[in-house]
């Protein structure tokens, strides 16, 4: 059965909520590149996945695993900025590429902005990112396993070897909780580091997608120096100290 435009928008709204608890109607309209009135009309008929309540699009509690995995950290913050970053970063993904996707809501926005016509292999270690990739019709998904970090919804390797070892990436899209000229890229969890570091060393092109709130921030877990990053995509012009 051919998917209608309304059905596609409902699906895109459900995908958007894989990365956050709720989305304001205005931000949802901007993300889908339609008017707020169009989305309001879409809710005139019932659907299984999402609701419009008080000006926010929220997920329905349907017991579906596809809508269960959301991350708590800053889940409703900087949606407009992350949508802008996602659309820009998605332009770098081409047909038949193999791409590593880090964890975090910004990465989910990148995946949602990838054209459904593009065939690619997506490799990840995060459940919410896995669910976003699984929703892309022409994506072959590889989920790296191991131990499970219940706080961050990520997997981490239990030994020196893992699924990622024999994969070489066209691009690696990284997120970070902090970026600083002296201290580089940092994050909250040390469990995230093994897969991140291997992806950086095995990728032809390392892309950092980060909103303006992360600049000048330093967290405890060190990912890499700025010299390891080829491209930085943000919602603002990069400060001069990050350009060298």
From TrEMBL:
Gene3D superfamilies from the UniProt entry: 3.40.50.1360
Keyword vocabulary terms for this entry: DNA-binding, Transcription, Transcription regulation
TM region(s), chain numbering: none
Source species, domain of life: Bacteria
GO MF entry, a single one: DNA-binding transcription factor activity
Name the record gives this protein: DNA-binding transcriptional repressor DeoR
Pfam families for the chain: DeoRC, HTH_DeoR
Upper lineage: Bacteria, Pseudomonadati, Pseudomonadota, Gammaproteobacteria, Vibrionales
Domain HTH deoR-type positions: 6-66
UniProt key word Transcription regulation: yes
Organism of origin: Photobacterium swingsii
InterPro entries according to UniProt: Carb_Metab_HTH_regulators, DeoR-like_C, DeoR_HTH, NagB/RpiA_transferase-like, Tscrpt_reg_HTH_DeoR_CS
């Amino acid at each position: 059965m051919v998917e209608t435009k309304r059905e596609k928008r409902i699906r895109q709204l459900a995908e958007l909520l894989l990365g956050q608890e709720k989305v304001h109607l205005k931000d949802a309209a901007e993300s889908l590149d339609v008017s707020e009135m169009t989305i309001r009309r879409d809710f005139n008929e019932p659907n299984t996945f999402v609701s419009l309540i008080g000006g926010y699009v929220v997920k329905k509690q349907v017991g579906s695993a596809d809508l269960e995995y959301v991350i708590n950290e800053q889940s409703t913050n900087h949606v407009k900025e992350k949508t802008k970053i996602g659309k820009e970063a998605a332009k770098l993904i081409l047909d038949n590429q193999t791409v590593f996707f880090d964890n975090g809501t910004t990465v989910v926005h990148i995946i949602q902005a990838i054209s459904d016509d593009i065939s690619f292999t997506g490799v990840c270690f995060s459940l919410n990112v896995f669910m976003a990739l699984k929703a892309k019709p022409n994506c072959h998904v590889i989920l790296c396993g191991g131990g499970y970090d219940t706080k961050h919804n990520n997997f981490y390797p239990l030994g020196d070897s893992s699924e990622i070892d024999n994969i070489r990436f066209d691009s690696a899209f990284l997120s970070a909780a902090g970026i600083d000229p002296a201290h580089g890229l940092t994050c909250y969890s040390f469990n995230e580091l093994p897969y991140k570091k291997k992806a950086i060393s095995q990728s032809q092109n390392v892309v950092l997608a980060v909103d303006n709130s992360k600049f000048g921030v330093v967290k405890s877990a060190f990912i890499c120096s700025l010299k390891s990053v080829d491209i930085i995509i943000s919602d603002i012009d990069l400060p001069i100290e990050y350009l060298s």
